[in-house]
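ugh ok so i messed up the first submission bc i forgot one of the chains. this is the corrected input, ALL of the components this time, i swear. 578 residues overall. if the numbers dont match what u have on ur side tell me asap before i send this to the collaborators (the ones from the other lab, u know who)
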Amino acid sequence: MVKKPSRQVGMVIDLNKCIGCQTCSMACKRLWTGGDGQQQLWWNKVNTMPGEGSPRGWEDMGGGFDADPSFLGWRVGAGKPGPSRLPEDDEFGTYVQLPAGEEVARSGEGRRTTTPEARPRWMYNWDEDRGAGVHPNAFFFYLPRLCNHCDRPACLEACPRGAIYKREEDGIVLVNEEKCEGYRFCMEACPYKVIYFNPKENVAQKCIGCYPRVEAGVAPACARSCPARARFYGYVDDPESVVYKLRKWGVALPLHPKFGTGPNVFYIPIMSSSRLDEEGRPTGAPRIPLDYLKSLFGDAVEGALNTLREERQKVKNGFNSPLMEMLVGWRWPDDFFAPFVKAPDEAKAPRQKVSGDAAAG
Amino acid sequence: MRAAKVSSLTSSDASPNSDLWTRAPAYGLKLSPVPVATVDTSAYVRRAFRRINIGAVSAVNVQAVCDGKLLSLRMEWEDLTEDAHITGTASLPDKAAVIFPIKPGASVMTMGSPVAPVNMWLWQADREAPFDVFSQGIGTTARRDPLVSGLSAKGVYSGGGWAVVLTRPLEADGIAYVNLAGKRVLQVSFAVWEGSNRERGPLKAFSGEFQDLSLET
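and heres the new structure output, hopefully the right one now
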């Protein structure tokens, strides 16, 4: 089992703020995965919930461990790996040559809006407008997903070649492409299915936690580019860090803790307005069923939602809530990413594959 | 097994369809799946594949010829699915290999050990050039440049199966590449990965521990 790193970076994503604009996805894509063989790679993407996400049906594909390391500490051998399978390309989605919209702009000429050989049938947010529930109680919300840089990475343990490692200095999980031979056991073992295959290079590739930026004191591109300011970033073990504080409040929860990998990406659970009765009157019951949220974030989501409601009520009543202040965040970037508050152009230029860093925020 | 003596091997002889192979004795070897649940690989691989039938290819026909300088080995097996390209996430290529002990006492099951490494001549359906692989145990395989040892390979798919020829000079450094020069009897083992059955890495069929291959003089 992997050794606990001396530091661990983490991220908190406030689902109440995410507007599903995919700016994070584009920031990541432009910065890291614009190369040939990387068309299918969306290290960061925003799925819609309830939904099948990407790869399609990933939540039921297996992988991970049968015990949660956050309850068991770093005990060697705690939790056995669960079987899974390789996701298929069409479960990730059809690659569409962008910008597809260019043809739309020239409408009237009878052109296709997508390339003929790539008629999309699935994409990371294909089911965006589906949601669940029936009018007037229909609901959906966005779920940004990326590598969780887990405490106990299932990918790392699954690799027979030891090609995946967790960095001692910040806990970022990386693939050593020199050692990787494209077996893809990591893709199967990762229960979040956030490892991708580059068929051109025959290697597994995944979110690198924007480590060149992080090393230079710049927050990851997905977090820094977020127009909704839904993302917080910092050391999970630094009492001064907003990530630490939100965890301490009990409102930042890992996705599917039952997968047993100990994620370091956490979510502020989505709050919902009241269900309406047949007359259109609020019933007081949440529109998004608690059981559904428990299926995503575990039983702890109930307490987290209670805390969020109580603190929000405090503010409504004219009192101060340090938690709400934190979630609103008044000073950007300090309140969001400290100590990773440098702008990319203030730091030494990170390794770039495609375009200028300015585009990625 | 016996390798036929031939006058002088040329690159065209190294083709699987060369007439040369009509003159070499053929041996039908049974292949068995690597017992994944017991080998030294990752816990995920051991658990996830313990109840899955791996080692889809159950037999291989083997022939060998040697001209005193070059050794050429031909493997032929049935495979109804030609996996010759890595087309995407769930696509894995067909592969075949000949394995030699670099030092006595090496085990094929463990793919060698630090004190007794093995050398594997690895052909992959998706590649022109083979890999010359040095291994000190499962998960440690290092792909070396085949140009250093002079290893070449050619695979042909037809009639529902593969025929693959791997050719290399007998002489090599004996450290990372097995040195076969001056030997009357070689030790060999064979392995096949069926891409359509998601076989890769430790998931393969092999002919068991090393068998003798005598070189005609």
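quick check: Residues 9-92+124-360 of chain A form a domain with the Alpha-Beta Plaits fold (CATH 3.30.70.20). that seems consistent at least. Chain A touches chain B through 30 residues (CB under 8 Å).
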